[in-house]
Amino acid sequence: MAPSQLPDLFDPVFTLQDLSVFYGDYEAVRGVNMRIAPQEITALIGPSGCGKSTVLRCLNRMNDLILDARVAGKVTYYTEDLYGESVDPIEVRRRIGMVFQKPNPFPKSVFDNIAYGPRINGQRRGLDEIVEEALHRAALWDEVKDKLKQNALALSGGQQQRLCIARAIAVKPDVILMDEPCSALDPIATTKIEDLMQVLSRDYTIVIVTHNMQQAARVSERTAFFTAEVDERGERHGRLVEFDSTARIFSNPADKRTEGYITGRFG
Ligand SMILES: Nc1ncnc2c1ncn2[C@@H]1O[C@H](COP(=O)(O)OP(=O)(O)OP(=O)(O)O)[C@@H](O)[C@H]1O
User: Fold this and answer.
1) Candidate CATH numbers 3.20.20.450, 3.40.50.2300, 3.40.50.300, 3.30.1370.10; the one for domain 10-262
2) Which of ligand 1's atoms lies nearest the C-alpha of 56?
3) Is the beta carbon of 238 within 6 A of some atom in ligand 1?
4) Residue ranges of the ABC transporter domain (predicted)?
5) Does any ligand 1 atom lie closer than 6 A to the CB of residue 173?
6) For residues 112-144, b (16+ Cβ closer than 10 Å) or e, as one string?
7) Which of 24, 144, 162, 216 could form a disulfide with 43 if both were Cys (CB 3.0 to 4.6 A apart)?
8) pTM reported for the whole predicted model
């Protein structure tokens, strides 16, 4: 999509205002402002340690689970303060699912992996349909329809990752966060996940952290480039340098640091 064809972000799913994240006294990410559009793929790229995963984890309060992590500034989900007192982090993580770098199916059957979330949510009926639909949506049904009772750990790495995507979908999320979902996969499995992401982005908002710039360029509509700035005391802080349409970031970035990174001259 050409830069000018991207819609303006009037109704973002997430609005990050002056977001900083601390681990103890260490400010890992400083002053991030950005808005994330619905039903698009937004990529977070940048050199190692610039805070991409930290920012991603703020979007479904996964950082709450890290001892010592503290978030400052504001994250708004539609119109709601995601860190507001009345917000239930468990419900947040149901609506905003996450897929990790390493496929992490439970050591259970394929069926029970997918049915796990709905069961926890009290669902007892219609599980067969839910499991089948989630597997269809994750482009895995044809490969596993005769293996629903088999242990999920017997699947290939790429199938396991699609199973994890199906597991995320089964609880009917609104957003899927992906933290380097293909880094443990071979090129064929990676292509399948990328194709799947494109299909899923018609129904879900997707935010992906990736080290692979070609992947960001292939799959995303918008790209955020982060870097780590070193302060006067020698401490590194993750900063958002530039956020724009992916077409512009990769063809005509506004900031020299972005250009240096995408042309491989730094990072
Ligand atoms: N649980 C943690 N406790 C303390 N410091 C952390 C923790 N997680 C991340 N950090 C630090 O925060 C900074 C940002 O890390 P983060 O993992 O978010 O960066 P990243 O850009 O995703 O890196 P990579 O591309 O290598 O995965 C780094 O300096 C890292 O060491």
Assistant:
1) 3.40.50.300
2) 18
3) yes
4) 14-253
5) no
6) bbbbbbbeeeeeeeebeebbebbbebbbbbebb
7) 216
8) 0.94
